[in-house]
């Protein structure tokens, strides 16, 4: 006897017997009344079976996808919008502002071969960037996903583990379609639960708990907010229920698109229709059937592979040090961290996410450094008055170790940016207990700023040779400042209730201004300014040239912990590569009150290897130059050395030698020369190895 088939049959029979008022056709009778089955139990079984019907679970997949999107004015009265939210048919259109149609061929092969071929595209109407962006965003959304990110909102789907406890599910009388019995499940937010979600119905197969149809509309607590109405249908392909079509209507009850079209009517409707044809499960693909996938995935095609999106989202979380766990994001850097000064750090830390509350998040950490034998802790809370990360108010206390002269730019440390690897190499740190408050705001997409104030107690543990040679008495600081960031062309998307960067920007500019105060027990009155910029030069025919420039200046009588360090990353003859730093300059070898530096990297791989190469080595020439000065009194008082004559080094790297999914490896060599060249030839060389994440 086949026990698996028997078990499956018993589950199906039990589910059918548990449903109330369902009519089932058979050879002897037309209908039988069956007992009610708990709707939440059905939805939990649906979630268990969802991966079986997801193309990302197949070894290979292909489909033809047709998409039609348009923006038009609402020709009906406002009251007509909510009369029938399940009606997603397209009304007769007398005129529209924008329309686009595309036909694409999608195929993919595990583990990471993806290709989207744009077969045809037709666009009419006003050429407005926001319309094209909305078309791209709508095409990839599905209520069957756990989370939907649209219009700076994060919608919690009823098809999510987090939905249980937030959604109320009800089982209505089942229906029979083409001889198949289907559960009809309704869903809505529970009474007293207020969040961005959906109300609607879903048809679920009683045989395999596969989704057959979803009709939903978003919760709308403010009449001025946009309203989404979604209708999804599914078809059976080789015994698996696949999504076959999605129709989405978005009603804008006020001008939220900022389309600059000059249209006086404030009511617009966006309509997105996606149809999927000729779906094939596990077709016989080989790697030779794919072109250069990296360029395909970055194309302007409106179709995006769901599996790739979910993988890159997880990789991005991990490289930022976060592990999503329900209402919390665990910070694994607090569980298991490292730098040369503190050694291996063990502890725990994390922060709530926006699923817990739209208006605030809070977090904390405690860690222990095995090498410096110190316990550190911190707590903070963020307030979002407008439920948007564009406006954030923060209060925090942090007991941490910090590098002397550590840059303070409005940037996030992430493994996606190899420049942040330098923090693993820090050898000398001072201890600080800092209370701070700040306000962050993004007035428009490329520009962001952070106003802050802090008071701190700072001292040196004197547990390294450098710290013992450069003593300073405990320092109390009171500071106020502003951090600015301008990133033209930045790609931001709402994720976890916050605007997240989707990749490392090609150009980035930072300015930080700090004012030392003699109030609140502050002991130093000084001004400190630092800037940083990154951009590419337009020499595409010869390869890619990237330049990072840095500079800073501060007034006299600043505390020693605020002096700029030389930004060296030499931790030994063989050490980790940290681009855009001085690879042959030792940690804290130099200091400066005023400095300038230029870091140039030129990648010859575009010149040497055609684009048809899926993975190509990256041959990189690097040139680093820096100047920094201290006055004679500062040099004598703190026993410091500057590099006013100029520090020079050149290097050569070969990266992408070994590629494993999102991770690649490389190696390089750097040589130090000029006024600060060391006496022994071999001491001027530094050998680097590196690893790089790339989405």
Description:
This protein is mainly beta and 695 residues long. The chain folds into three domains: 3-304, no CATH class; 305-415 and 428-500 and 507-519, no CATH class; 526-695, no CATH class. It is 11% helix and 48% strand.
Q: Largest sheet at a glance?
A: 19 strands, mixed
The number of helices is 9
How many domains make up the 3D coordinates?
A: 3
Mean pLDDT: 80
Evaluate the radius of gyration: 29 Å
> What's the helical proportion of residues?
10-25%
How far apart are the first and last residues' alpha carbons, in Å?
A: 49 Å
- Determine the strand fraction and express it as a percent band: over 45%
Number of strands: 37
Structural class: mainly beta
Runs in which pLDDT lies below 50 for 5 or more consecutive residues are 1-36, 77-94, 258-265, 292-309
- What general form does the structure show? globular
Characterize this entry briefly.
The chain has 9 helices and 37 strands.
Secondary structure layout plus pairing:
Blueprint: H1 3-17, H2 39-49, E1 60-73, E2 98-109, E3 113-125, H3 129-139, E4 147-150, E5 153-156, E6 167-177, E7 180-189, E8 198-205, E9 211-218, E10 227-237, E11 240-252, E12 268-281, H4 293-297, H5 306-319, E13 322-325, E14 328-331, H6 332-335, E15 336-339, E16 343-352, E17 360-369, E18 374-383, E19 391-403, E20 429-444, E21 447-459, H7 465-469, E22 475-486, E23 492-495, E24 498-501, E25 508-517, E26 527-537, E27 544-554, E28 564-565, E29 568-570, E30 574-576, E31 582-586, E32 591-592, E33 594-603, H8 605-608, E34 618-629, H9 632-638, E35 643-660, E36 663-673, E37 685-693
Parallel strand pairs: 29-31, 30-37
Antiparallel strand pairs: 1-2, 1-12, 2-3, 4-5, 6-7, 7-8, 8-9, 9-10, 10-11, 11-12, 13-14, 14-16, 15-16, 16-17, 17-18, 18-19, 19-20, 20-21, 21-22, 22-25, 23-24, 25-26, 26-27, 27-33, 28-32, 33-34, 34-35, 35-36, 36-37
């Amino acid at each position: 006897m086949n026990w698996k088939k028997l078990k499956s049959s018993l589950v199906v029979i039990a589910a059918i017997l548990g449903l109330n008022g369902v009519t089932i056709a058979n050879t002897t009778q037309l209908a039988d009344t069956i007992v009610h089955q708990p709707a939440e139990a059905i939805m939990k079984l649906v979630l268990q079976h969802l991966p079986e019907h997801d193309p990302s679970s197949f070894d290979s997949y292909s489909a033809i996808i047709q998409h039609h999107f348009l923006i038009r004015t609402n020709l009906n009265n406002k009251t007509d919008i909510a009369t029938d939210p399940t009606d997603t048919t397209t009304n007769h259109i007398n005129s529209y502002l924008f329309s686009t149609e595309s036909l694409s061929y999608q195929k993919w092969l595990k583990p990471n071969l993806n290709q989207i071929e744009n077969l045809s595209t037709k666009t009419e109407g006003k050429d407005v960037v926001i319309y094209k962006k909305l078309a791209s965003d709508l095409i990839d959304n599905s209520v069957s996903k756990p989370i939907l990110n649209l219009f700076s909102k994060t919608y919690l789907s009823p098809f999510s583990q987090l939905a249980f406890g937030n959604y109320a599910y009800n089982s209505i009388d089942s229906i029979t379609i083409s001889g198949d019995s289907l559960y009809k499940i309704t869903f809505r937010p529970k009474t007293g639960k207020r969040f961005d979600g959906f109300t609607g119905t879903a048809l679920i197969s009683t045989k395999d708990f596969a989704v057959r149809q979803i009709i939903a509309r978003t919760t709308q607590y403010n009449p001025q907010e946009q309203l989404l109405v979604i209708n999804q249908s599914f078809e059976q392909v080789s015994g698996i229920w696949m999504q076959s079509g999605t129709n989405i209507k978005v009603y804008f009850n006020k001008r939220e698109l900022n389309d600059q079209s000059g249209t006086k009517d404030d009511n617009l409707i966006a309509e997105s229709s996606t149809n999927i044809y000729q779906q094939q499960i596990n077709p016989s693909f080989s790697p030779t059937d794919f072109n250069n996938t990296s360029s395909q995935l970055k194309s302007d095609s409106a179709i995006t592979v769901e599996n790739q999106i979910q993988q890159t989202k997880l990789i991005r979380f991990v490289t930022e040090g976060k592990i999503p766990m329900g209402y919390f994001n665990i910070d694994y850097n607090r569980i298991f961290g490292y730098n040369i000064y503190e050694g291996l750090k063990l502890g725990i830390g994390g922060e709530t996410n926006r699923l817990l509350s739209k208006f605030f998040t809070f977090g904390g950490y405690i860690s222990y450094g095995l090498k410096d034998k110190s316990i550190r802790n911190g707590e903070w809370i963020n307030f979002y008055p407008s439920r948007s990360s564009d406006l954030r108010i923060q209060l925090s206390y942090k007991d941490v170790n910090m590098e002397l002269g550590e840059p303070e730019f409005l940037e996030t440390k992430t493994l996606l940016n190899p420049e942040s690897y330098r923090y693993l190499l820090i050898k000398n740190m001072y201890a600080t207990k800092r209370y701070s408050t700040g306000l962050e705001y993004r007035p428009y997409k490329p520009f962001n700023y952070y106003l802050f104030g802090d008071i701190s107690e700072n001292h040196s543990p004197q547990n390294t040779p450098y710290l013992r040679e450069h003593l300073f008495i405990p320092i109390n600081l009171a500071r106020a400042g502003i951090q600015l960031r301008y990133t033209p062309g930045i790609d931001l998307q709402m994720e976890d209730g916050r605007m997240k960067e989707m990749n490392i920007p090609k150009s980035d500019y930072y300015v930080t201004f700090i004012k030392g105060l003699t109030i609140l027990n502050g002991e130093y009155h000084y001004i400190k300014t630092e800037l940083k910029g990154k951009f590419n030069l337009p020499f595409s025919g010869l390869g890619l040239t990237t330049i990072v420039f840095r500079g800073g200046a501060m007034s006299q009588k600043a505390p020693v912990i605020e002096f700029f360090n030389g930004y060296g990353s030499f931790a030994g003859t063989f050490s980790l590569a940290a681009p855009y730093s001085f690879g042959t300059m030792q940690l804290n070898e130099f200091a400066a009150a005023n400095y300038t530096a230029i870091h140039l990297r030129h990648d010859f791989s575009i010149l040497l290897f055609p684009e048809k190469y899926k993975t190509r080595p990256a041959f990189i020439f690097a040139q680093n130059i820096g100047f920094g000065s201290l006055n004679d009194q500062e040099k004598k008082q703190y026993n410091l050395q500057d590099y006013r004559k100029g520090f020079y080094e050149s290097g050569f790297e070969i990266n992408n030698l070994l590629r494993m999914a999102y991770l690649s490896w490389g190696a390089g060599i750097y040589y130090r020369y000029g006024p600060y060249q060391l006496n022994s030839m071999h001491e001027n060389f530094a050998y680097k190895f590196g690893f790089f994440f790339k989405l």
